[in-house]
Design goal:
Keywords: Signal. This is Chemotaxis protein. It contains 9 helices and no strands. The protein is mostly helical. The chain has one domain. α1 packs parallel to α7 and α8 packs antiparallel against α9.
């Protein structure tokens, strides 16, 4: 009888552990996937904004005869250095999400090590080279896990140390991107500069179109193309920018929830899945506006 009771106790503990691991896996896979996607989409938006700002600056020079070669820098305000820092921040989010997904799914391939390395490279590029001891140990434990016996308890501890070590860093990253995707009138964000360039181009091209026969057909054709591009950019800025801005705010809330829940396994899958659904909608919108 005593042996049966001990066996039952072990079996119940095993089932409890399985439930815990399953809940953590589902929560972190959902959170990781959404974070990877929002990082990837934000990265794509910054690169698209830079390309389109260069194109709009070119059209402004073509359509405005008062401009000369010294009037404006070809990529202002999306300078290469500032865009690089923003892309690195997005890559940090993307690789953090990818790393969480792989750890939660028990991926033991070399891709886990690669995700950890790329995440570390980008977050130090964005936030500075000095890591805390907890952050260094968290990343080292990911690599060590590939070379040792990977028990459920060890995996859970590795994920927990990673999430807790980089919780503040994720808040800082999402806060910076939240500010960069603001369209507030007082904002000096990347998105606001992108939209303002489009509005300048729209005003100039509309004046040429409305001038009718006073402008040459060739200039009018260029103005029409510029006008259409400006309208597309304004629509993209309002649609994508507002959604990514909102998503970054949701990311901060979801990250705070994961940081709290990972310590006692109190995950709310509904909250995390809502975050994922929001990112899914942004992805669909990005596909439409990219055409």
């Amino acid at each position: 009888m005593k042996h049966i009771l001990i066996a039952c106790a072990f079996f119940c503990a095993f089932l409890s552990g399985c439930a815990t691991n399953t809940l953590q896996r589902n929560a972190l896979e959902n959170f990781g996937l959404a974070t990877e996607r929002v990082g990837r989409m934000s990265e794509s938006e910054f690169l698209s904004m830079r390309d389109e700002i260069i194109e709009m600056n070119s059209l402004l020079m073509i359509l405005d005869n008062s401009k000369n070669a010294e009037s404006r820098t070809y990529d202002e305000p999306a300078l290469a250095d500032t865009t690089t820092m923003r892309v690195a921040a997005c890559k940090s989010l993307r690789m953090y999400g990818d790393l969480l997904m792989r750890l939660a799914a028990d991926d033991r391939t070399g891709m886990v090590r690669k995700s950890a390395r790329v995440f570390l490279d980008n977050i130090t590029e964005t936030l500075g080279p000095d890591l805390t001891l907890a952050q260094e140990e968290a990343v080292q434990n990911v690599a060590l896990g590939l070379d040792a016996r990977w028990t459920a308890r060890k995996k859970s501890k590795t994920i927990q140390s990673l999430v807790l070590a980089f919780a503040d860093a994720l808040t800082i990253l999402s806060g910076r991107l939240l500010a960069d995707f603001s369209l507030d009138e007082s904002s000096t964000s990347h998105l606001k500069a992108y939209a303002d360039t489009a509005k300048e181009l729209k005003t100039l091209s509309a004046a040429i179109i409305d001038a009718g026969d006073r402008e040459t057909l060739d200039k009018r054709n260029k103005a029409v193309k510029a006008f259409v591009l400006a309208q597309k950019v304004i629509a993209r800025a309002e649609a994508m920018g507002a959604r990514i801005h909102e998503a970054m705010a949701t990311l901060q809330k979801a990250n705070a929830h994961v940081v709290a829940a990972i310590q006692d396994n109190s995950y709310d899958l509904r909250e995390i899945r809502e975050y994922g659904k929001q990112i899914q909608k942004i992805g669909t919108m990005q596909q439409v506006l990219s055409r």
